[in-house]
Design a protein that fits this description.
- It is a single chain.
- The chain is mainly alpha-helical and 158 residues long.
- Helices cover 66% and strands 3% of the residues.
- It has a two-stranded antiparallel sheet.
- It starts with 9 loop residues before the first helix and ends in a 6-residue tail after the last helix.
Length: 158
C-alpha cells in the first residue's frame, strides 16, 4: 500500500493552525482587527495559500477558528490565568504582543482541549516561540503553560 504524501498529516495541519492562530491573534492585538475579519482573511487568503511570495502551510481551518474565537471569547478568563502564572516582575501588559498571543492560545487549548495531551500543546507553542524568539521567551512559554496545566488538569488528563 503506498502512502499519500500529498496530504499533510492531521497533526501537521493542527500545528499550522496553531501558528496561524498566533499570527492572527497578534494581528488583532496590534491592528485592532475583529475576529470575523481576521478569520475570514486567513481562510480566504492565507491557510494553504501563497501570499506575497510566502507559502502558508495547509492548516486545519476548524482548529484555527476554534483557537482564535476561543481566545477572544475567553480572554477575560485567560489573561488572569496567564498573569497569575507569570513571575511578579513580568506583568502581562509588559510582554511582547507575539508572546501574549502564544500564551493566550496555549492557555486556551490547555483549558478547553482536554482531548489533547498537555505535552503536545506545550511543545507546539514552545516551537512557535522558538520561531519568533532566540532568547528566554521559549523557556517562559514552557514554564507558564506548565503552571497553567498543573492548575487546570488532573495528573491523568495530561
Amino acid at each position: 500500500m503506498s502512502k499519500d504524501v500529498s496530504k499533510p498529516k492531521l497533526a501537521n495541519q493542527r500545528g499550522a493552525a496553531r501558528l496561524a492562530a498566533v499570527q492572527a491573534l497578534y494581528q488583532m492585538d496590534i491592528g485592532g482587527t475583529g475576529v470575523l475579519e481576521v478569520v475570514s482573511e486567513y481562510e480566504m487568503h492565507r491557510l494553504g495559500k501563497e501570499l506575497d511570495g510566502d507559502l502558508y502551510r495547509q492548516a486545519d481551518a476548524a482548529w484555527f477558528r476554534a483557537i482564535v474565537s476561543g481566545v477572544v471569547e475567553q480572554q477575560r478568563t485567560l489573561d488572569p490565568l496567564i498573569r497569575s502564572s507569570l513571575t511578579e516582575d513580568w506583568p502581562l501588559s509588559r510582554l511582547d504582543s507575539t508572546l501574549r498571543a502564544i500564551l493566550r492560545a496555549g492557555a486556551y487549548e490547555i483549558s478547553n482541549r482536554k482531548d489533547v495531551p498537555v505535552a503536545v500543546i506545550v511543545t507546539e507553542y514552545v516551537d512557535i516561540g522558538q520561531a519568533f524568539f532566540d532568547d528566554d521567551e521559549p523557556k517562559l512559554i514552557n514554564a507558564v503553560l506548565d503552571r497553567i496545566a498543573k492548575r487546570l488538569r488532573t495528573p491523568d488528563s495530561t
